[in-house]
């Protein structure tokens, strides 16, 4: 399902694409949607949506409006709205989101902060495989 | 913006190949059409002594507002670079082309043929566009590099078989973007686009079914499209699409939008710049916003 590209959040019209043969280092800061299928290290920040495909290996702190992870991520993940970890997703780091969806088979190791209306809930998880 | 063409002066720069007898009929036809439309102006021809840049300097000093390249993309590219590097700043200078040979520049400007050119030029519908700058050369459409740039014609079964058995080198290149990141890749092709020369600049990519991009020469950005290393079979399958900049079906595409990118490699990189070939080890490519006025037709591709 996510082999070539991440299933981007609905309404995505991606404009920055990191293909699977590309290695990117540094700060990828954008006001556009981002799709990652290659290797990325540094920092990834966008005011829009971020999709991380099955072939992606990301060693970076990431921040976006909505995030879908189907590949490997090492770093803190902050979704201002929804974070979805697909069945092939592997996340090592702290995550924060208003809405969280973790598919069976996904791997997450770290702390989870859920930001609701006016309150913050902290959930600690270690090496969770659903 | 459409204006009365009679108020403006026209300067036509003919490429040296137009001396060939086979172009005499076409040139005669153009002269008559230009006279009929009341836009006949001074004509100059490029020679080994009279370079494009010198002709343009002369023409601008004389007060010509419309500089028209008559030929193909070779002379068009030289005229564009000369206009962009003119020391005298003239805000109302315009560029256009009469395509005497196949010309991508004419196509993107919406000038489909020699016959259509005089009328389009006389209407003077003007758009201000960005120009790409590769080191000291300017380009209107794109520049590209990589293994996919090799001139390969795959017609017969035997030519395909020969291609399959030949080794294709993929030199590793680094692209350092002004926006703060660096990309390393062994590309089949890297295309840097100011204008995408098909589908009115719209691009739908297979990497994500939701992605639809517009490449515009009026957004102050270059679109860098990278075709990653392909297996031999896939290279053969997609070679025609790669060479035609038709990226929609090709797997593993990368896309970055930038104001400036520096490209380097350990070996020389063959580069095609608006269909002209150059070779460099390191190059800087950037966008120069709102740099050129161009006369366009209704069928322009942006």
Would you mind describing this structure in some detail?
- Chain A is an all-beta fold and 130 residues long.
- Chain A has one domain.
- Chain A is 0% helix and 58% strand.
- Chain A has no helices and 15 strands.
- Chain A has a 6-stranded parallel sheet with strand order 1-3-5-7-10-13, with no helix packed on it.
- Chain B is of the alpha+beta class and 302 residues long.
- Chain B folds into 2 domains: 122 residues, Rossmann fold, CATH 3.40.50; 153 residues, Sandwich (Tumour Suppressor Smad4).
- Chain B is globular, with a radius of gyration of 20 Å.
- The N terminus of chain B is likely disordered.
- At the A-B interface, strand 1 and strand 2 of A face strand 9 and strand 14 of B.
- Strand 2 of chain A pairs antiparallel with strand 9 of chain B, so a sheet runs across the interface.
Secondary structure elements and pairings:
The complex is a heterodimer of chains A (130) and B (302).
Chain A: E1 16-18, E2 23-30, E3 34-36, E4 39-46, E5 50-52, E6 57-64, E7 67-69, E8 72-74, E9 77-79, E10 82-85, E11 90-92, E12 95-97, E13 99-102, E14 107-115, E15 120-129
Parallel strand pairs in A: 1-3, 2-4, 3-5, 4-6, 5-7, 6-8, 6-9, 7-10, 8-11, 9-12, 10-13, 11-14, 12-14
Antiparallel strand pairs in A: 14-15
Chain B: E1 10-14, H1 24-36, E2 42-45, H2 52-62, E3 66-71, H3 73-84, E4 94-99, H4 104-108, H5 117-123, E5 126-134, E6 137-139, E7 142-145, H6 157-165, E8 173-177, E9 181-185, E10 189-193, E11 202-204, E12 212-214, E13 222-227, H7 232-243, E14 253-258, E15 260-273, E16 276-295
Parallel strand pairs in B: 1-2, 1-3, 3-4, 4-16
Antiparallel strand pairs in B: 5-6, 5-16, 7-10, 7-15, 8-9, 8-15, 10-13, 11-12, 13-14, 15-16
- Number of DSSP helices of chain A? 0
The total domain count of chain A is 1
Helical amount of chain B: 10-25%
> What is the average per-residue confidence, as pLDDT of chain B, rounded to a whole number?
86
Tally of DSSP helical segments of chain B:
7
Q: Name the biggest interface.
A: A-B, 30 and 28 residues
Rg calc of chain B: 20 Å
- End-to-end separation of chain B in angstroms reads 16 Å
Report strand order across the widest sheet of chain A.
Answer: 1-3-5-7-10-13
* CATH architecture call of the largest domain in chain B: Sandwich
């Amino acid at each position: 399902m996510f082999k070539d590209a991440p299933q981007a959040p609905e309404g995505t019209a991606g404009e920055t694409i990191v293909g699977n043969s590309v290695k990117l280092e540094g700060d990828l800061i954008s006001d556009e949607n981002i799709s990652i299928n290659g290797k990325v290290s540094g920092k990834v920040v966008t005011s829009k949506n971020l999709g991380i495909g099955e072939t992606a290996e990301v060693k970076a702190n990431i921040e976006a409006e909505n995030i879908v992870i189907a590949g490997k991520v090492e770093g803190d993940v902050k979704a201002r709205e929804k974070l979805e970890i697909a069945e092939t997703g592997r996340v090592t780091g702290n995550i924060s989101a208003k809405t969280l969806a973790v598919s069976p088979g996904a791997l997450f190791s770290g702390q989870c902060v859920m930001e609701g209306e006016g309150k913050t809930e902290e959930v600690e998880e270690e090496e969770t495989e659903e | 913006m459409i204006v009365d063409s009679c108020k403006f002066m026209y300067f036509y720069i003919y490429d040296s190949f137009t001396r060939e007898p086979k172009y005499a009929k076409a040139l005669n036809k153009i002269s008559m059409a230009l006279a009929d439309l009341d836009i006949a102006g001074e004509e100059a021809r490029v020679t080994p002594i009279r370079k494009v840049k010198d002709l343009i300097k002369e023409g601008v000093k004389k007060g010509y507002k419309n500089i028209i390249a008559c030929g193909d993309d070779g002379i068009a590219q030289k005229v564009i670079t000369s206009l962009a590097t003119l020391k005298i700043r003239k805000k109302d200078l315009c560029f256009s082309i009469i395509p005497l040979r196949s010309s991508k520049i004419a196509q993107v400007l919406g000038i489909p043929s020699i016959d259509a050119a005089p009328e389009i030029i006389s209407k003077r519908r003007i758009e201000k566009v960005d120009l790409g700058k590769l080191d000291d050369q300017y380009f209107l459409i794109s520049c590209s590099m990589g293994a996919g740039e090799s001139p390969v014609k795959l017609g017969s079964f035997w030519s395909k078989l020969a291609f399959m058995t030949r080794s294709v080198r993929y030199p590793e290149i680094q692209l350092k973007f002004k926006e703060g990141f660096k990309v390393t890749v062994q590309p089949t092709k890297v295309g840097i686009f100011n204008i995408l020369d098909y589908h009115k600049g719209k691009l739908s990519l297979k990497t994500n079914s939701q992605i639809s991009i517009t490449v515009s020469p009026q957004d102050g950005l270059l679109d860098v499209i990278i075709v990653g290393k392909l297996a031999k079979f896939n290279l053969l399958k997609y070679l025609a699409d790669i060479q035609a900049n038709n990226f929609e079906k090709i797997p593993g595409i990368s896309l970055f939008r930038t104001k400036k990118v520096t490209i380097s490699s350990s070996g020389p990189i063959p580069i095609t710049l608006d269909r002209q070939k150059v070779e460099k080890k390191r190059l800087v490519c950037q966008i120069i916003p709102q740099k050129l006025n161009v006369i366009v037709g209704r069928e322009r591709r942006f």
